[in-house]
Automatic annotation (TrEMBL):
This is Large ribosomal subunit assembly factor BipA. GTP binds at D17, A18, G19, K20, S21, T22, N130, K131, I132, D133. It is found in: Cytoplasm. A 50S ribosomal subunit assembly protein with GTPase activity, required for 50S subunit assembly at low temperatures, may also play a role in translation. Binds GTP and analogs. Binds the 70S ribosome between the 30S and 50S subunits, in a similar position as ribosome-bound EF-G; it contacts a number of ribosomal proteins, both rRNAs and the A-site tRNA. It comes from Eubacterium pyruvativorans. It catalyses: GTP + H2O = GDP + phosphate + H(+).
Length: 634
């Protein structure tokens, strides 16, 4: 092939919302990847609709830029712990990492996770303190906190000797001395501006790119050695099928080349490469041949999986398999069996759901799908509520109808047979006046306080809480802090089972007949019930229409019409005042339901329902539970 291209692969790692995708935007803009007249959206790497709506990165993305003759492949990684399986794999494909930390928040729980994975791989990070223009920036303290974090994670002396740069990713600025930024004024209008190829106020992102070239050596020339490439990501193309993505460790890979693929368990299979693609800017470009050090995409191997090694046929040497951490949460996906099933969805049968889950397994390696005793029900396990709810939301938008159960924590057993459960590290920042309520709630949920401090009217709490105790807590937390609190969490470890956690505490209001809700009926119910429906909503028997103020369930008729009479009544339509109903997001609905309830998901609606729709079925089930309980106590 032609002259060897110098290549450095870097990953941008950080906690959620620290500015990773915004920094990548600055790299691309100032490297003139976009045309002068091209309309560029914010967080251009976040191509998924849900990523844009929620402002988070879910799937790692690749792009490349050129700087001083060196090709820099950039990987934008997820910051949320639920998508940590993506981060674990990416660390095997890069030579360097840029650790982004917010100048006021400092290191957060997920910062610890992504940093620990990079240090385990022996990578030496560059620290970039972002958003230094914040009014509450505490730059020196944050740098000290990062040093402490490195030491807690047993970083080597070489890893502790990391370069530090400061900047504002939104404006495309990186400097070695934060005082350089003090000389420029950034107004409110400037903060909303998109990146420009020139940077801002005479400053740009080049100091960070220069530091990358100075701090890291390009990948060594090993083109003369036998091919070896480990697959770290999967993708799917409707035209060319399954794609394997990874870095070529040595040798070169050519389109149409015959290779060996080493699989888990030592099996070796003969395969043939279809097309080969490399990244140029944001584009995936087909090439005849790609060299070692580059991150490439290969097609043609329909059964390729994460961790498998593509090798030269004469030298089938496997690389160490990539370990993916086990799921911590599971729920049942089942065919929608409500009276409204099939009215709006395109894909409603168990075959449709099975095929969609199988397709998801092609690329979502943190997911696990198991058959159950029922052909209409599948047990789906993932890394957390967000991980599973993103899958459900995607299915909903694609036209699927399904029902899902309450999430369950996956328990493990140690060598002595003791039950272990996942525990999460939680960091909460909230106004001082709400700290008492938060502490009380977390203690009830078997949380253990690690640290508490107060500054500038805000309390910062650090806890270890069982994942079970956090199910359903986020919406409570938002209500308790009136939306002013911030909660971050990440998986910590498996610890001995900590006992029962109290449930919801309130019963629900259940519709007793199918029909359309009326203002008159809701007006009569809302004194005792927080309503989830409004006049004109279609309901069915067994559908949950509100939350009772007491702990027991209550049967109600939200469709009851006012009797017509010629007498003027106090409850005439012009005196009815209705409280707005509570509207659930998908995550809130999953958090709200109990064991005997389901969330019904259609392309147009999210409904809550009882598993047993009729009052007679529910009464029989209650009587049976009582009988079994009495038997066990005798």
């Amino acid at each position: 092939m032609s002259d060897f291209q110098k290549i450095i692969n870097i990953a941008v790692i950080a906690h959620v919302d620290a500015g990773k995708s915004t920094l990548v935007d600055a790299f691309l803009s100032q490297s003139h990847v976009f045309r002068e007249n091209e309309e560029v959206i914010d967080c251009v790497m976040d191509s998924d609709a849900i990523e844009r709506e929620r402002g988070i990165t879910i799937y790692s993305k690749n792009c490349s830029i050129m700087h001083n003759g060196v090709k820099i492949n950039i990987v934008d990684t997820p910051g949320h712990a639920d998508f940590s399986s993506e981060v674990e794999r990416i660390m095997k494909t890069v030579d360097a990492v840029i650790l982004l930390v917010d100048s006021s928040e400092g290191p957060m729980p997920q910062t610890r996770f992504v940093l620990s994975k990079s240090l385990e791989q022996g990578l030496n990070p560059i620290l970039f303190i972002n958003k230094i223009d914040k009014k509450d920036a505490r730059i020196d303290e944050v740098v000290d906190e990062v040093y402490e974090l490195f030491m807690d994670l047993d970083a080597t002396d070489e890893q502790l000797d990391f370069p530090i740069l400061y900047g504002i990713a939104r404006q495309g600025i990186a400097v070695k001395d934060p005082a350089e930024v003090e000389s420029i004024e950034i107004g409110e209008g400037d903060r909303k501006m998109k990146h420009t190829p020139e940077g801002f106020g005479g400053l740009n992102i080049n100091p960070l790119l220069d530091e990358i070239l100075e701090h890291y050596e390009p990948y060594p020339d090993r083109t003369g050695e036998p091919l070896q490439m480990q697959v770290s990501q999967l993708a799917y193309d409707d035209y060319i099928g399954r794609l394997g993505i990874g870095r070529i460790t040595r040798g070169t890979v050519k389109a149409g080349q015959t290779v060996k693929v080493t699989k888990e368990g030592g099996e070796v299979a003969d395969r043939k490469i279809g097309q080969v693609f490399v990244y140029r800017g944001l584009q995936r470009m087909p090439v005849e041949e790609a060299q070692c050090g580059d991150i490439v995409v290969v097609s043609g191997i329909s059964d390729i999986s994460i961790g498998e090694t593509i090798c030269d046929p004469e030298h089938p040497e496997a690389m160490e398999m990539i370990h993916i951490e086990e799921p911590t949460l599971s729920m049942n996906f089942m065919v929608n069996s409500s009276p409204f099933a099939g009215k709006v969805g395109k894909f409603v049968t168990s075959r449709h759901i099975r095929e969609r889950l199988a397709k998801e397994l092609e690329v979502n390696v943190g997911l696990k799908v198991e058959e159950t005793d029922s052909t209409d029900c599948f047990k789906v396990s993932g890394r957390g509520e967000l991980h599973l709810s993103i899958l459900i939301e995607n299915m909903r938008r694609e036209g699927y109808e399904l029902a899902v159960s309450k999430p369950h924590v996956i328990l493990h057993r140690d060598e002595n047979g003791n039950e272990l459960e996942p525990v999460e590290e939680v960091v909460i920042t909230a106004p001082d006046e709400y700290s008492g309520t938060i502490i009380s709630k977390l203690n009830m949920r078997k949380g253990m306080m690690l640290q508490m401090n107060s500054e500038n009217g805000y309390t910062r709490l650090e806890y270890h809480v069982p994942t079970r105790g956090l199910l359903g807590y986020r919406s409570e937390f938002i209500n308790d802090t009136h939306g002013e609190g911030n909660m971050e969490r990440r998986f910590f470890d498996f610890e001995p089972f900590k006992g029962e956690v109290p449930g919801r505490g309130n019963g629900v209001a259940i519709a007793i007949e199918e029909g359309t809700c009326t203002p008159y009926a809701i007006w009569n119910i809302q004194e005792r019930v927080q309503m989830f429906v409004s006049p004109g909503t279609h309901v069915y028997e067994g559908m949950i229409v509100g939350m009772n103020s007491r702990e027991d369930d209550m049967d109600v008729n939200p469709c009851k019409a006012k009797k017509v009479s010629n007498q003027r009544a106090a409850g005439s339509d012009d005196t009815i005042k209705l409280t707005p109903p509570r509207v659930f997001s998908l995550e809130e609905a999953l958090e709200f339901i109990e064991e005997d309830e389901l969330v019904e998901i259609t392309p147009e609606d999210i409904r809550l329902r009882k598993k047993l729709l009729t009052e007679l079925e529910r009464r029989r089930a209650r009587n049976e539970r009582t009988r079994l309980m009495n038997q066990s106590q005798q």
